[in-house]
Amino acid sequence: HGIPATLIPGDGIGPEIVDVAVRVFDALGSPFAWETQQAGLNALEKSGDLLPAETLDSIRRTGLALKGPLTTPVGGGFRSVNVRLREAFQLYANVRPARTIIPGRYDKIDLVLVRENLEGLYVGHEHYVPIGGDPHAVAMATGINTRAGSRRIARFAFDYAVRNQRRKVTIVHKANVLKALTGMFLETAKEVGLDYADRLEYDDRIVDACAMQLVLNPWQFDVIVSTNLFGDILSDQIAGLVGGLGMAPGANIGEDAAIFEAVHGSAPDIAGKGLANPSALLLAGALMLDHVGKPAQAQKLRDAIDAVLATDSGRTADLGGGASTSKFGDLLIERLRG
Ligand code: NAI
Ligand code: MG
């Protein structure tokens, strides 16, 4: 019973924070029936593959996964598991909400970046041209944006904005220089925006100006939609506005599957020490609840996280507190049950 969902503990701090997530989801009365599967370094050691067929089959069946961070071994020519998952399930939309929980340099930030996840300069069409004795005299990369891909991500962003009671979508591009690659993206996204003109405002920004505006006045933004490379960079920037990667959740969404994760990595420097902050993974879990049509449970979880993090005793070491990973989980569960 329950909605079948794949659970990937992952590497490093992954199993510790996933363990907290499972306990917290139980306390919340979550709708998910977990299917635990391996991926990452631990899977490589056990089964010789960073991304075993069983794990792929499970996600294919459930169409839903909550994923701990995975270590991609350096050297040995391994392709990133995260990129393989995106390609395997055509997870074309990367959604990164950034919301202030603990006020720092900025307060009351609440914005969402929607990044195209499959096209652009990240398609991996790269090569060198040798000249004279230098085999790498010229380095080349081809960026590929399709009309269909641009329309799909723009539609996703506008639909997301409507569904989540947002007011504005900002299209980010570099159409003044990359006239074809991002000019077409801008033109297509604006066309999509016309279909929503009765419900949403939209405007556009050149990416470099947008980066500056995000520092000077981030409150002017609401939902931002951009191409792969710009979206990658800006999504880390907006994570910085709300206190860094430790608080940042992400969703990778396709037509047939969606994978939810913390934005941070496996943090090998603190693994096994009870120092990891599970907030980002739990916030990803809240996005997953939203995704399956359980917004009330998602909000209950977010409210509980906010409340625990508002207390000194509820903060993990990365936030200057003394709570261990499991203690943070216990406090959250108390809050949810109380
Ligand atoms: P990282 O995000 O794992 O760690 C960067 C710093 O932030 C470290 O000092 C770490 O202790 C701290 N940190 C990260 N998450 C934290 C948390 N939840 N609580 C408290 N502190 C936290 O980035 P790094 O060190 O560059 O990468 C480590 C490994 O993770 C690499 O193998 C990398 O490939 C992988 N990685 C995986 C990702 C994924 O699966 N989505 C994303 C990013 C990196
Ligand atoms: Mg990135």
Question: What this model shows, in words?
Answer:
The chain has a ten-stranded mixed sheet with strand order 2-1-3-12-11-4-5-10-8-9, sandwiched between helices. Strands 6-7 form a two-stranded antiparallel sheet. The chain is globular, with a radius of gyration of 20 Å. It has helices at 14-28, 41-47, 53-62, 81-88, 147-163, 181-195, 207-216, 228-241, 279-291, 295-309, 325-337; strands spanning 3-8, 32-36, 64-67, 93-99, 110-116, 120-131, 134-144, 168-173, 201-206, 223-226, 249-253, 258-262. It has two domains: 1-89 and 256-338, Isopropylmalate Dehydrogenase; 100-245, Isopropylmalate Dehydrogenase (3-Layer(aba) Sandwich). Helices cover 41% and strands 23% of the residues. Helix 5 packs across helix 6 (181-195). The protein is built from eleven helices and twelve strands. It is an alpha/beta fold and 338 residues long. Bound molecules: 1,4-dihydronicotinamide adenine dinucleotide and magnesium ion (MG). Belongs to the isocitrate and isopropylmalate dehydrogenases family.
